[in-house]
Structure formats: structure tokens, C-alpha cells
Amino acid sequence: MRQPLIAGNWKMNTTKDEAIALVKELRPELDIINNTEKLVCPPFISLVAVREALVGSTVKVGAQNMYFEEKGAYTGEISPLMLTGICEYVIIGHSERRQYFREAGETISKKIAAAIRHNIRPILCVGENLGEYEAGQTREVVSDQLKSSLSGVEKGDTLTIAYEPVWAIGTGKAATGKQANETIHLIRTFIAGRFTSRIADNIRILYGGSVTASNIAEFVAQPDIDGALVGGASLKAKEFTGIVKVTSQTRK
Ligand code: PGA
């Protein structure tokens, strides 16, 4: 049985003080839930403070991005070595990084491989945009993204994938559970072919895009959906703890 994972992607929100305040509010509510894995991904600048605020907690810490080299002349970048000991997870290839920072196949694949080498669990994001969705190209787009993002990746065991249709991100217009499950099932089939069916059965595939405490049950009740990557709603303590609680109850 795959344990569900609820991951909060805080994006470029919260100052260091706000990050600490948010995590202090989340911690007591989330620590008592043990059949669901909980993860927060604050901005780089707050990672250490959030890690310290979570000592002894079951809430895990992740980064929103990283570079693939260990060190060197890469101004402004953060390396996997720097994240080691602070983060258990790292989000890679989020659609906002693809869209605003031109991240694509080879770079993403190198980042995933680097994360795995450093024992940081990558969460690879894939998903079609509105035009592609309307043209009925979801299947091709997602398969192409998986193919290129995993091209240099040898070991898939610690991979997590987030299916995030771009048209559902930050729009309040989530996919339906059935729609998301269909694409996520396809992703699992792809992983079985790319790695092994054991890995496909074991890895978690999340849905992301306008997830709230009111719609999460629809997603985690689906057979192939193992949790969610949450943006906007992860910044509100009540909403995020609500999402985790509903997940935990739905999976009991
Ligand atoms: P959203 O973002 O929940 O605000 O739609 C999801 C994401 O981008 O991971």
C-alpha cells in the first residue's frame, strides 16, 4: 500500500518570519496524523529556519528547485550538497519553472539524477497547458515530458511524480478526480515500461492544481492518485491541515 503524500509548495511566498509562524501553526495539527506523509516546501531562504522549527516533528521539508552541479561558478544557484541534511524532497520541473525560466527536458533530467545521487527524493512535475488540453493532446504532452525528464535517470525507486495540468494551477478550476486518475494511470503505465512494474506499483503519483480541503477527497479516493501537490491552499494553515485530515480519513 502506498502511503499518501500531501506536499505544500509555498512558491515565492512568506518571509522568514512568516514561514516560521506558518510552520508553528501547522505542526501540532499535522504531527498527530500518521497515515499520511506531510511535506512543506518553503523558499530557499527559509529552509534552515523551517527545518529547525520542525525538529522532532513528522512534517518533512523540501525545496522547490535546485541545480544539478555540486558546486562552482553558477551564480544564484543552490546545489544538492547544500540541501543535504535539510531537505528530504525537492520539486523539479514545476510548470512555473518550465514557463518562466525555460527549464526543459535535459536540465530537468540532470536535476532529477543529481537529486537521486544525493538521496534527496525528487518530485517531478508534468502536465499539459490549456491549449494542449483543449486540443486533446494531454496524453502525448505528458508522455513526452516524462520521456525527456527521465532520459538520464537510471534508478526510479525514490521518484515521486506530480501530475499538474497547467490550466488547473492557481485558477480555482481543478480537474475532476476521474480526469486526473486517467492521466495518472497513464503515467504509472509509462513508469512500468521505463523502469519496472514493481517501481510503478510503489511510487507515488500526486495530483496538483487548485486542490482545497473541499475537493481533496475526490482525488485521494481514486485508485491511482496518492496525494496532492498544493500551492495556494498550502499557505493557509487551516486549509492545509484540512487537506491532510481529509486525506487521512479517506484512506483509513
Ligand atoms: P495551486 O498550485 O494549488 O495554487 O493551484 C499547485 C502547484 O502549482 O503546485
Characteristic key phrases:
252 residues, alpha/beta, eight-stranded parallel barrel, binds 2-phosphoglycolic acid
Which structural class fits the helix and strand makeup? Answer: alpha/beta
Shape: globular
H/E topology pattern: EHEHEHEHHEHHEHHEHEH
> How do the strands line up in the largest sheet?
1-2-3-4-5-6-7-8
Give me the secondary-structure topology.
Layout lengths: L4 E5 L6 H16 L5 E5 L5 H7 L5 E5 L16 H4 L5 E4 L2 H6 L4 H13 L3 E6 L3 H5 L3 H12 L10 E4 L13 H18 L2 H6 L1 E5 L7 H5 L6 E4 L6 H14 L2
Parallel strand pairs: 1-2, 1-8, 2-3, 3-4, 4-5, 5-6, 6-7, 7-8
Helix pairs in contact: 1-11, 5-7, 7-8
The protein binds 2-phosphoglycolic acid (PGA).
Description:
- With 252 residues, this protein is an alpha/beta fold.
- The chain has eleven helices and eight strands.
- Helix 5 (105-117) packs across helix 7.
- The protein is globular.
- Bound molecules: 2-phosphoglycolic acid.
- Residues 9, 164, 169-170, 208-211, 229-233 line the site of 2-phosphoglycolic acid.
